[in-house]
Amino acid sequence: MSVLIGELSRKTGVNTHQLRYYEAQGLLEPGRGTNGYREYGDDAILTVTQIRKLLQAGLSTEDIAYLLPCAIGPAPDFESCPELLDALRARLDGLDSRIDTLVRSRDALHDLIDATEQHVPESIPA
């Protein structure tokens, strides 16, 4: 059984523009009917669900293209694929590094605010 892009959009809640983007990124591979319309197989709903959850985890479509062949189920869970854990750990390390940078920036801003507030004259009572 296959579904057209509009039906896949309705079943997944993902607009057709995004579905075409996933196709362009190599994440979805529809067939073509005799009329030229995109026809998605039975696994397309699961694949779109997996893509959405991986995007929510902060992964890029490039990361997802690498990981998707290892995905199992809607969560998704992953079967053991070559270098899968290395790729996930590298992504996590990158996020941790950005978080550390943001925390340092926040701390520096707090210090600047505190220093500036010490030089603000107290208001004169009315």
TrEMBL record:
Residue stretches making up the HTH merR-type domain: 1-70
InterPro entries: DNA-bd_dom_put_sf, MerR-type_HTH_dom, MerR_fam
SUPFAM superfamilies given in the database record: Putative DNA-binding domain
Pfam families assigned to the protein according to its UniProt record, in alphabetical order: MerR_1
UniProt xrefs under PROSITE patterns: HTH_MERR_1, HTH_MERR_2
Electron transport is among the record's keywords: no
Keywords: DNA-binding
CDD domains tied to this protein: HTH_MerR-like_sg3
SMART domains per the UniProt record, alphabetical: HTH_MERR
Protein name: MerR family transcriptional regulator
Organism from which the protein derives: Nonomuraea purpurea
